[in-house]
Amino acid sequence: MKYFCAIFVLLIVLGLSATDGYDCKIVQFIFGDSLSDVGNNRNLPRSLAQANLPFYGIDFGNGLPNGRFTNGRTVSDIIGDKIGLPRPVAFLDPSMNEDVILENGVNYASGGGGILNETGGYFIQRFSLWKQIELFQGTQDVIVAKIGKKEADKFFQQARYVVALGSNDFINNYLMPVYGDSWKYNDQTFVDYLMETLDSQLRVLHSLGARKLMVFGLGPMGCIPLQRALSLDGQCQNKASNLAKRFNKAAATMLQDLETKLPNASYKFGEAYDLVNDVITNPQKYGFDNSDSPCCSFYKIRPALTCIPASTLCKDRSKYVFWDEYHPTDKANELVANILIKRFDFMRADDGTSTAPAPSPDDN
């Protein structure tokens, strides 16, 4: 499952282009984990990585669980809303069809998923990045059948791509001795393994048309509530956070190298460690009162792992950085989204001037 920092930007264009009678927008395709999952896992009946019980979604729409691992919106929801764009639909959403894809794009993100196939195995069902790419290939097939190969190639090459995974590969793999990877690798060789795998995955995405893509980095993983609860003194676990730094450095270098080698590729790395670390270290500076424990918890039992109907909620959700042991609140997501829009405005397909009022968390 994902935590606060593996965060990402999702920006698409308002302009339309004629495509064999279809008004095809430039849309986005999202590959990620629980930070960006908008309902895929809720349609995986055997998955143990779920956000399908109250109080998930309490500040979104009708207040019922909707598949998002937070009380409200994800970072991607907020960014898309603020520039007046539709939200990509979960791949497993019952409404999914060719017209929805052409109008909204697709979100393949899955709670518990990682860069590696073996990551998050104890969740039983989840989509790894390789699986998400496989599903994207299927999406391409149905669009080719709908509008023809020439226009489909144009549609996918003009789209925006976001890849936001990695923390599960540490938290729900390498840092857990039940996984073989924790014994097979050391810190550096495991990061090398991740980079080799991610490099291959991004090359496959390029071969499938991904030309404008952003990969988001990790934040201080050792400071999420779960890691604090598992420590002896309740403080951040430096080992996990240092692994995030190592991952970020390697990923930034790899993305720069890929961009120079792949034709017409605009591959960027979104660094967010500094921002998230500052929010956690100085919460009052950003309007929060608490950055070390979850708003939704099971009384004083820690770690609570997930939010359930028997959980207790904090009095003011807007004052907490974390919603549960892993994931940020709507308010924290909004803060991050606002900063990322300023930092990475180049992901826009327009001139960067389009604006729209941001719907509140109550809007669907």
UniProtKB/TrEMBL annotation:
Residues 1-21 form the signal peptide. The keyword Hydrolase applies. SUPFAM superfamilies: SGNH hydrolase. One of its GO terms (molecular function) is hydrolase activity, acting on ester bonds. Gene3D superfamilies: SGNH hydrolase (3.40.50.1110). Belongs to the 'GDSL' lipolytic enzyme family. PANTHER family: GDSL LIPASE/ACYLHYDROLASE FAMILY PROTEIN (AFU_ORTHOLOGUE AFUA_4G14700), ZINC FINGER PROTEIN. This is GDSL esterase/lipase At1g74460. The gene is LOC108815965.
